[in-house]
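ok so i was messing around last nite and threw this chain in just to see what happens. nothing serious, just curious
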Amino acid sequence: MSEQNKYLLKLYITGHTPRSEQAILNLRRICEEDLSGHYEMTVIDVLEHPGLAEDEKILATPTLIKALPPPLRRIIGDLSNTDKVLLGLDLQPVRR
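result:
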Protein backbone atom coordinates (compact mmCIF):
# COMPACT_ATOMS: atom_id res chain seq x y z
CA MET A 1 0.00 0.00 0.00
CA SER A 2 1.57 3.31 -1.05
CA GLU A 3 1.77 6.45 1.07
CA GLN A 4 -1.16 7.99 -0.79
CA ASN A 5 -3.31 4.94 -0.09
CA LYS A 6 -3.00 5.18 3.67
CA TYR A 7 -6.20 5.37 5.66
CA LEU A 8 -6.87 8.79 7.21
CA LEU A 9 -8.91 8.25 10.37
CA LYS A 10 -10.32 10.95 12.65
CA LEU A 11 -11.79 9.98 16.01
CA TYR A 12 -13.99 12.59 17.68
CA ILE A 13 -14.36 12.22 21.45
CA THR A 14 -15.83 14.30 24.28
CA GLY A 15 -13.28 14.74 27.06
CA HIS A 16 -11.28 11.98 28.72
CA THR A 17 -14.19 9.77 29.74
CA PRO A 18 -13.99 5.99 30.09
CA ARG A 19 -16.00 5.64 26.83
CA SER A 20 -13.63 7.98 24.99
CA GLU A 21 -10.56 6.20 26.32
CA GLN A 22 -12.02 2.81 25.34
CA ALA A 23 -12.72 4.05 21.80
CA ILE A 24 -9.11 5.29 21.48
CA LEU A 25 -7.72 1.96 22.73
CA ASN A 26 -10.00 -0.03 20.43
CA LEU A 27 -9.08 2.08 17.39
CA ARG A 28 -5.35 1.77 18.11
CA ARG A 29 -5.74 -2.01 18.43
CA ILE A 30 -7.67 -2.24 15.15
CA CYS A 31 -5.11 -0.07 13.37
CA GLU A 32 -2.13 -2.03 14.69
CA GLU A 33 -3.65 -5.48 14.13
CA ASP A 34 -5.54 -4.93 10.87
CA LEU A 35 -4.05 -1.92 9.07
CA SER A 36 -0.42 -2.76 9.75
CA GLY A 37 0.94 0.81 9.79
CA HIS A 38 -1.02 1.91 6.72
CA TYR A 39 -2.96 4.60 8.54
CA GLU A 40 -2.84 8.06 10.05
CA MET A 41 -5.00 8.51 13.12
CA THR A 42 -6.05 11.81 14.70
CA VAL A 43 -8.01 12.11 17.95
CA ILE A 44 -10.06 15.30 18.26
CA ASP A 45 -11.68 16.34 21.53
CA VAL A 46 -14.87 18.25 20.68
CA LEU A 47 -14.62 20.14 23.98
CA GLU A 48 -11.26 21.56 22.88
CA HIS A 49 -12.12 21.96 19.17
CA PRO A 50 -15.88 22.56 18.84
CA GLY A 51 -15.44 24.18 15.42
CA LEU A 52 -13.93 21.01 13.93
CA ALA A 53 -16.82 18.95 15.28
CA GLU A 54 -19.31 21.43 13.86
CA ASP A 55 -17.58 21.36 10.45
CA GLU A 56 -17.86 17.55 10.37
CA LYS A 57 -21.45 17.65 11.73
CA ILE A 58 -20.59 15.45 14.71
CA LEU A 59 -23.79 14.80 16.65
CA ALA A 60 -22.58 12.06 19.00
CA THR A 61 -19.25 10.84 20.33
CA PRO A 62 -17.20 8.84 19.97
CA THR A 63 -17.47 9.15 16.18
CA LEU A 64 -14.84 7.75 13.84
CA ILE A 65 -14.52 9.17 10.34
CA LYS A 66 -12.56 7.53 7.55
CA ALA A 67 -11.65 10.59 5.46
CA LEU A 68 -9.34 8.83 3.00
CA PRO A 69 -9.47 6.90 0.78
CA PRO A 70 -12.95 7.83 -0.50
CA PRO A 71 -15.76 7.33 0.06
CA LEU A 72 -16.01 9.09 3.40
CA ARG A 73 -17.43 6.77 6.07
CA ARG A 74 -18.35 7.27 9.72
CA ILE A 75 -19.22 5.06 12.64
CA ILE A 76 -20.44 5.96 16.12
CA GLY A 77 -19.60 4.02 19.29
CA ASP A 78 -16.70 2.67 21.31
CA LEU A 79 -15.38 0.60 18.36
CA SER A 80 -15.31 -2.59 20.43
CA ASN A 81 -16.54 -4.83 17.58
CA THR A 82 -13.60 -5.00 15.17
CA ASP A 83 -15.53 -6.71 12.37
CA LYS A 84 -18.32 -4.09 12.48
CA VAL A 85 -15.76 -1.26 12.43
CA LEU A 86 -13.89 -2.75 9.47
CA LEU A 87 -17.13 -3.39 7.58
CA GLY A 88 -18.81 -0.10 8.52
CA LEU A 89 -15.84 1.98 7.42
CA ASP A 90 -15.09 -0.21 4.40
CA LEU A 91 -11.58 -0.88 5.71
CA GLN A 92 -9.64 -3.70 4.13
CA PRO A 93 -7.34 -5.42 6.63
CA VAL A 94 -3.73 -5.45 5.49
CA ARG A 95 -3.26 -8.75 7.29
CA ARG A 96 -5.72 -10.81 9.26
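not much to say yet. Residues 3-79 form a domain with the Glutaredoxin fold (CATH 3.40.30.10).
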